Each structure stands twice: as structure tokens, then as C-alpha cells.
């Protein structure tokens, strides 16, 4: 059964296209994504990893989701999450400064080596933030971890009471680092693995006790063709995603495409819109290179537009600054502005 893996995909994905098909071309070799045509002609196919199929046979029921201010905020349509500043933190004291300075958010998310560059291990950082009393959601990707490694981190998230986990494929490290990517699981199978581990099943077939579990989040990309992204979304919902977090949105056009994606997918699922602050002219070319359309709208204008959309359940703030002092100032301003707009 493992032979079903499509060797024509440079990452060996069972399900695709992944988030690295910028402009529908593979970020690895620049060719048209070999899984694109398959998604165009099939109805949201979901090729489940053979180990996960065996795990499913052992599931006796779902574990109760953990109650949290984050999930209550989503249900009310005004959740607010903030990405932890992995590029600005340098010391243990910096971590404490962040925790003590920015409190009025429902969740701190910890990204997993964005753009393929090493920062901090997200589960370890999330665990420390959790020990300091902060609600957390690490990003867990498949680019650097095989199935066993992901399962162990999921069990850690379960044991220590994380509020949520965000499961996504992860960024290709490129040619700048001598790092061999793994990509043992694509995003849909990562989501399914999370639901299975949280149900108390390990890839070895062993069962363990699980009383409460984190919520399982997936991603949604409004910069894909809406009809294709709707199928990718459906696949993640089938796999077990309970909420979706968008890629960075930097234009009203992308919000319109997001609405079209969700309408085509037809699923009723909470959506967090990711907004970047500050959205400066200097950042717009970099966003365009990453396949993110950047309009003329500023941060506050996009916030006001998001507020009018009834399908949005909250905001995921990403604050850009390489200095901690700058990040703290910008994050405080972004959180305050967001709260004011949504009250």
C-alpha cells in the first residue's frame, strides 16, 4: 500500500497540491505541480496513509475537546490569537518579557521554522509558555518530522494540556541549508494523525488514556484558485480539522476569494484570518514573491473589512519586527487596535 505514494511529486505527497505550489508550480523544481490535475478532475480525493488506516480500526470514540477562552471566542466570532515572535526573541529573559507584556489575547501560536530556517522547536517553546500560564498552539509540520516524531509531539501536546495544534505541511528549506526534508505526511494526514493520537491511539497500535484533547486546526489559502482550494479544504475537514487559519491576507481581493472558497467548500467551519502588522510598502514585494497578493489597504482598513464578514470567527495577528523592542510596541498597538475594531 505504501507504493501508492506518487513518486512524481518531489516531496512524495500522497495528497496535493501542498502550500508550496506557488502559482501552481512546485517550489522544489519549478515544474507544474503533478498533483494539480488530479485534484482538478477528482472530487476532493483523500489518500490516507496506511499506518493511519490501521490506527482507525482501534478508535473507540472521540476524546472530549478542552474548554478554552480561544474556542469560546471562535464561537462568538471574535477570537484573537498572536504569533510568538520567534525572530525577535534571543534570551530566556526575552520570553518572559513577551509573556508579561502581551496578555489580552486568547492564544499564543508558535510557528515551526517558517521559510525553512531554524528558530525554536515549537512544542518545547509552547510547553514553556504553557508553564507560564499562557494558552498555546504550536504549529506542527511534516517537513522535518516523520510520522513517529509527529505522534510523540502530539502526545506531548495532549499530556500538557495545550489548547490547540495547527497541522500543516511546512515550508521547503530550499538549497540554502544542507537539510534533508522529510514530508512523511501531508497536511490532511497530519490532521488525521492528530485526531487519532488525541483519541488515545499510537502508530504502534497501543492505546493510552486521554481525558481532554487540544483542538485540531488546519490552514486555508485564499491565494489558490478558489475551486481547487475548496477541494483542499474539504479534504482537511474530512480528515478532522475543527477550524482553519488563513495564510497571510494583505488585500481585500484575497478576502473576497476566501469567501468564494468557503462558499464552494460548503463546510461550516470557524475561520481565523491572518493579518500582518505593520503592512508596509517595504514588505509588499516580499509578500508578492511568496504568492500573497498585496493591495493598497493598510492593517486597519483590512481589519474593518474583516469585521463585515460573517464567516470570519477571529483574527490571527502576525507582527513583523526583528527587534524585540519594536515587536512589543507593534504587538501592543495591533492587539489594542483589533480589540477596538471588533468591540
TrEMBL record:
It holds the Pfam family MTHFR. Signal peptide: none annotated. Keywords: FAD, Flavoprotein, Oxidoreductase. The keyword Nucleotide-binding does not apply. InterPro entries: DUF5981, FAD-linked_oxidoreductase-like, Mehydrof_redctse-like. GO terms for biological process: methionine metabolic process; tetrahydrofolate interconversion. Residues 7-31 form the Methylene-tetrahydrofolate reductase C-terminal-like domain. One of its GO terms (molecular function) is methylenetetrahydrofolate reductase [NAD(P)H] activity. This is 5,10-methylenetetrahydrofolate reductase.
Amino acid at each position: 500500500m505504501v507504493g501508492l505514494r506518487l513518486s512524481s511529486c518531489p516531496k512524495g505527497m500522497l495528497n496535493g497540491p501542498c502550500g508550496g505550489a506557488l502559482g501552481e508550480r512546485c517550489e522544489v523544481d519549478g515544474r507544474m505541480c503533478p498533483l494539480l490535475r488530479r485534484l482538478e478532475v477528482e472530487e476532493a480525493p483523500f489518500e490516507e496513509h496506511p499506518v493511519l488506516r490501521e490506527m482507525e480500526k482501534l478508535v473507540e470514540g472521540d476524546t472530549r475537546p478542552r474548554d478554552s477562552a480561544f474556542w469560546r471566542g471562535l464561537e462568538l466570532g471574535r477570537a484573537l490569537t498572536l504569533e510568538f515572535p520567534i525572530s525577535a526573541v534571543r534570551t530566556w529573559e526575552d520570553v518572559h518579557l513577551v509573556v508579561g507584556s502581551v496578555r489580552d489575547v486568547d492564544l499564543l501560536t508558535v510557528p515551526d521554522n517558517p521559510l525553512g530556517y531554524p528558530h525554536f522547536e515549537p512544542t518545547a517553546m509552547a510547553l514553556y509558555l504553557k508553564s507560564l500560564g499562557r494558552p498555546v498552539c504550536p504549529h506542527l509540520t511534516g517537513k522535518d518530522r516523520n510520522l513517529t516524531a509527529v505522534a510523540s509531539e502530539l502526545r506531548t501536546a495532549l499530556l500538557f494540556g495545550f489548547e490547540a495544534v495547527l497541522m500543516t505541511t511546512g515550508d521547503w528549506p530550499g538549497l540554502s541549508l544542507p537539510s534533508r526534508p522529510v514530508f512523511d505526511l501531508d497536511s490532511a494526514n497530519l490532521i488525521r494523525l492528530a485526531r487519532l493520537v488525541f483519541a488515545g491511539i499510537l502508530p504502534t497500535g497501543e492505546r493510552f488514556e486521554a481525558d481532554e484533547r487540544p483542538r485540531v486546526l488546519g490552514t486555508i489559502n485564499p491565494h489558490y484558485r478558489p475551486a481547487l482550494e475548496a477541494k483542499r479544504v474539504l479534504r482537511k475537514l474530512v480528515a478532522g480539522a475543527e477550524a482553519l487559519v488563513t495564510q497571510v491576507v494583505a488585500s481585500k481581493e484575497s478576502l473576497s476569494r476566501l469567501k468564494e472558497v468557503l462558499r464552494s467548500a460548503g463546510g461550516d467551519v470557524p475561520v481565523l484570518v491572518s493579518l500582518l502588522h505593520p503592512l508596509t510598502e517595504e514588505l509588499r514585494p516580499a509578500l508578492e514573491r511568496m504568492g500573497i497578493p498585496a493591495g493598497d489597504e493598510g492593517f486597519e482598513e483590512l481589519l474593518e473589512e474583516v469585521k463585515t464578514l460573517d464567516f470570519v470567527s477571529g483574527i490571527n495577528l502576525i507582527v513583523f519586527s526583528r527587534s524585540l523592542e519594536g515587536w512589543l510596541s507593534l504587538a501592543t498597538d495591533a492587539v489594542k487596535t483589533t480589540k477596538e475594531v471588533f468591540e
